[in-house]
């Protein structure tokens, strides 16, 4: 979920190095020749959330491609170095809706992701027509306030192989049965495509926010009906609930991302747990342990707690909504996440 005025930074960290064959070449990830340090954090200080980093090739050169929540539009940034100064990296606005149009994707654009699916580029993001200010009668339907009740998922399609020169056009809304949907991502398994997103159980349940899965026939067409939609994770562990251990209001699972172990082929969904604007926002993990992602029994939650969380000594709090990438040569794994620089961010509504 998007957050603002919370002193958010985007941070990169070395994830588990899956190839332990001693092939690391840190020159490739931005060693500072004066200090010999590999990189310095944060890599972005623009006070934005939901970082998404991926890679693409153009004319034989490798690029990092980045997007994040601007709230108003979909903006891409790129650099050849993961550890570049991303505040000033070159950027391109690829989708800029009129906020007063009343279109279902007009306002509060959150958590865009750009995916290369079989050579075509798709941008998936959530947005709402109403600045997260639903009419009072609709707002009153929820047990607590529900500003994001009209957030839905949308898909843009690029018209060329190179994401930096492609133009993106609206392909449509991903069917979430006219229910709350944010932070959607693609999950690919056995040549099938799925949509995993943060959902409510019912139209007006508000909290908890869970993870739902539906099956797609192409990147913009959902083939599951509501009966077949599955909730594959609910925030039922104490560390997914803030205040700690309180089920219901503000208990949250969101920001799901697929991560595949290239050595073992294991499929994981890393997701953000707990409340976004608190120091306890962290990353939890599901593993696909069955063959059918559409069965909730196929998913096993790592119940021992967050797999990635705040570090009070380092002054990094609320670590969440991550994406995953590699060094240019593919030998090193990196996590790119947002974090708070204070455990007590100023009070702010999330609209
Ligand atoms: C590391 O990569 C850099 C840049 O590609 C290259 O110049 C250097 O020779 C490499 N070093 C080693 C030890 O492979
Ligand atoms: C390398 O580190 C030094 C000392 O912190 C700093 O002055 C310099 O700007 C850094 N160089 C780069 C390319 O980041
Ligand atoms: C950086 O590493 C090089 C090669 O190992 C070494 O010669 C140099 O003294 C180091 N510099 C610093 C500032 O540690
Ligand atoms: C997109 O992915 C395909 C593989 O599906 C790959 O061949 C192609 O190089 C990728 N496009 C870019 C621009 O990196
Ligand atoms: C896109 O949104 C950002 C953040 O609000 C803003 O700085 C930028 O001017 C916008 N770009 C366009 C073309 O509207
Ligand atoms: C994208 O649109 C611009 C402006 O309409 C146009 O100049 C450009 O050729 C288009 N790019 C592609 C790849 O079609
Ligand atoms: C949902 O789709 C399944 C097939 O996947 C079908 O068996 C079922 O009848 C459908 N349910 C409804 C309510 O349409």
Structural summary, described in words:
- This protein is an all-beta fold.
- It has a single domain, classed as Tachylectin-2, Chain A, CATH 2.115.10.
- The protein is built from one helix and 20 strands.
- Strands 10, 11, 12, 13 and 14 form a five-stranded antiparallel beta sheet that branches. A four-stranded antiparallel beta sheet has the order 2-3-4-5, with no helix packed on it. Strands 6-7-8-9 form a four-stranded antiparallel beta sheet, with no helix packed on it.
- Strand 12 and strand 13 (221-222) form a beta hairpin.
- The longest helix has 4 residues, at 136-139.
- Residues 225, 227-228 line the site of one 2-acetamido-2-deoxy-beta-D-glucopyranose.
- One 2-acetamido-2-deoxy-beta-D-glucopyranose binds at residues 159-160, 165-167.
- Belongs to the glycosyl hydrolase 43 family.
- This is Alpha-N-arabinofuranosidase 2.
- Keywords: Glycosidase, Hydrolase, Signal.
- Residues 1-15 form the signal peptide.
- It comes from Phialocephala subalpina.
Distance between the termini: 10 Å
> What CATH first level would be assigned?
Mainly Beta
For the secondary structure, the number of strands is: 20
Summarize model confidence as the mean pLDDT: 89
Largest sheet: 5 strands, antiparallel
Q: Return Rg in Å.
A: 19 Å
Going by CATH, the homologous superfamily would be Glycosyl hydrolase domain, family 43
| Hetero ligands | 2-acetamido-2-deoxy-beta-D-glucopyranose
Please write the string of helix (H) and strand (E) elements: EEEEEEEHEEEEEEEEEEEEE
**What is the CATH fold-level name?**
Tachylectin-2, Chain A
Beta-strand percentage? 35-45%
What is the oligomer described by this structure?
Answer: single chain
Query: Helix amount, in percent?
Result: under 10%
Number of domains: 1
Q: So what's the overall shape?
A: globular
CATH architecture: 5 Propeller
Uncertain runs: 1-7, 15-29
Number of helices: 1
**Which structural class do you get from the secondary structure elements?**
mainly beta
InterPro entries: Glyco_hydro_43, Glyco_hydro_beta-prop_sf
Family: Belongs to the glycosyl hydrolase 43 family.
Keywords: Glycosidase, Hydrolase, Signal
GO molecular function: hydrolase activity, hydrolyzing O-glycosyl compounds
